[in-house]
Amino acid sequence: MTDDAPASWDETTRPSLGESADAPYTREQETFPRHLVEIHDHLRSELTRLHGLVEEVRRGVLTAGEARSEVHAMSLRQNNWTLGAYCQSYCGFVNGHHSLEDASVFPHLRRAEPAAAPVLDRLAEEHLVIHHLLDDVDRVLVDLVRDADEAALDAVEAALQGLSDRLLSHLAYEERELRGPLARHGFY
C-alpha cells in the first residue's frame, strides 16, 4: 500500500448530495445508474475471484501454473496472461473505467448539475488513490509469480485487502451519490 493511502475512507469527509435511496425515477432513467452498478459488479466479482486464486495458491490447492490457467478463464482475460499480468489487465480495466469517468462522465455531470461538484471532486481524488493501490497490487503479484514464497503471498494478500477495502467502498459511494445525477442526466 502506498504511504499516502488512507487506512480506510473516512465517511465523514465524503460530500453527499443527500438524496434518498428510494427517490423515484422512471425505468428509463434507472438505465444509467443500473449500468454503472453492472460495471461495478463485474469489478467486484473479478476482485473476489482474484482473492480466491491467491487463497488457493496459499493452501496448496493450486500451483502458480494452475492459477495462471484459471486466470486465463476469467472474463477479463486476454491472450498470454499470467497471474501477475492478470492484475495489469484488471488494473487497466479499473483505470480505464475511472479515466472515462474523469474525462467524460464527471465533466458532463458537473455541467448538468453543478451542485454535484464536491462529490465528483471527491470521487476523482479517490480514483488517484485507487490507481496507486492498483500499482501496488500489480507490483506484488509480479513478485509472487517470480518468487512464489510465503512472504510474496502475504504481500499479495495485504495489497489486495487494501485495494478491496478502498475500491469496494468507493464503488458503493459512487453508486449511492451518482444514482440521481445519472438518472437525471445520463452518462453524457
Describe the 3D structure.
The protein has 188 residues and is an all-alpha fold. The protein has one domain (27-185): Four Helix Bundle (Hemerythrin (Met), subunit A) (Up-down Bundle), CATH 1.20.120. Helices cover 72% and strands 0% of the residues. Helix 1 runs antiparallel to helix 5 (150-185), helix 3 packs antiparallel against helix 4 (117-147) and helix 4 (117-147) runs antiparallel to helix 5. The radius of gyration is 18 Å and the shape is elongated. The two termini are 34 Å apart. The relative contact order is 0.19. The model is unreliable at 75-82 (pLDDT under 50).
Give the overall shape, derived from the CA principal axes.
elongated
- The proportion of residues in beta strands is under 5%
Query: Helical element count?
Result: 5
Q: CATH class, please?
A: Mainly Alpha
CATH architecture assignment: Up-down Bundle
Residue stretches low in confidence (pLDDT < 50, at least 5 long) are 75-82
Strand segment count: 0
Gyration radius from CA atoms, angstroms = 18 Å
Please write the string of helix (H) and strand (E) elements.
HHHHH
CATH fold topology: Four Helix Bundle (Hemerythrin (Met), subunit A)
Layout of strands and helices, then pairs:
Blueprint: H1 31-59, H2 64-72, H3 83-112, H4 117-147, H5 150-185
